[in-house]
Amino acid sequence: MRDDLDELVKAFVESEYTPDGAEIEGDHGHGPGEHGHGHEAGPSVREFEYRGHSVRIVTHYEVTIDGEAWTGPIHVLPDGNVVSHTLPQYLLPSAVDLISAVIDETYEAPEEVRAAIDAAREDAEQA
Q: How many CB atoms lie within 10 A of CB 54?
C-alpha cells in the first residue's frame, strides 16, 4: 500500500498538475495595491456599488491551529466564497471549510505526501 501511495505522489508531482476550471473572472477580493501573491495574511477587500451606495468590506482573519498561528492568505471573493493560494484548487463557502481543507491537506497527510507537496510548491515558486 505504501508503494502505491509513493507512486501516486511521484506521478502527481511529475505531472505538473495545473487546476482547470476554477478561475473566476473579475475581482478576486484584492484591494488597491494588494497583489495577493506570496503568503501574506493581510486583509481581503471587496468593493461594490449597491443602489447608488459605494460599499467597501475589509475582512481580516486571524487563524491558529493547535495554538500556532497559521499565516496563509485567505481571500474573500465578491460572492462570499473564500480561497487561499496555499490550496489553489479549492473554492470554499467559508473560512471554516477552508481551514478544514488546510488541515486535511497539510496536517493529516502522511509525511511523504507533505514532503512531496512542499517540494512541488518550492519548484513552482522558483519557476
A: 8
